[in-house]
Design brief:
CATH class: Mainly Alpha
Subcellular location: Mitochondrion inner membrane; Mitochondrion membrane
Order of helices and strands: HHH
Oligomer: single chain
Shape: elongated
CATH architecture: Orthogonal Bundle
GO biological process, one term: ATP synthesis coupled electron transport
Helix content: over 70%
Membrane topology: Multi-pass membrane protein
Keywords: Electron transport, Membrane, Mitochondrion, Mitochondrion inner membrane, NAD, Respiratory chain, Translocase, Transmembrane, Transmembrane helix, Transport, Ubiquinone
Family: Belongs to the complex I subunit 4L family.
Number of helices: 3
């Protein structure tokens, strides 16, 4: 395993463990998701550069576009829950009260 591969794998795993264990605020969950998407974007773009193929060159930009859509939807949900519930604590959200 190369050091670059290890760095991207460890960044993804740190984001995943942060998402799994630190679920007190919605904003922290969104930041962990963005960290995971950033590590995936960098790994995919370096993989496309190493292959020297033009067919894989569009995939990092497609992932970045989906990541931007995910971030905007997450921020919209954050604002909506902060307005309706008063905070972004995940313990105050209850699916049975919808």
């Amino acid at each position: 395993m190369t050091p670059v591969h290890f760095a991207f794998s460890s960044a993804f795993m740190l984001g995943l463990t942060g998402l799994a264990f630190h679920r007190t605020h919605l904003l922290s969950a969104l930041l962990c998701l963005e960290g995971m998407m950033l590590s995936l974007f960098l790994a995919l773009s370096l993989w496309a550069l190493q292959l020297d193929s033009t067919s894989f060159s569009a995939s990092p930009m497609l992932l970045l576009a989906f990541s931007a859509c995910e971030a905007s939807a997450g921020l919209a949900l954050l604002v909506a829950t902060a307005r309706t519930h008063g905070s972004d604590h995940l313990q105050t959200l209850n699916l049975l009260q919808c």
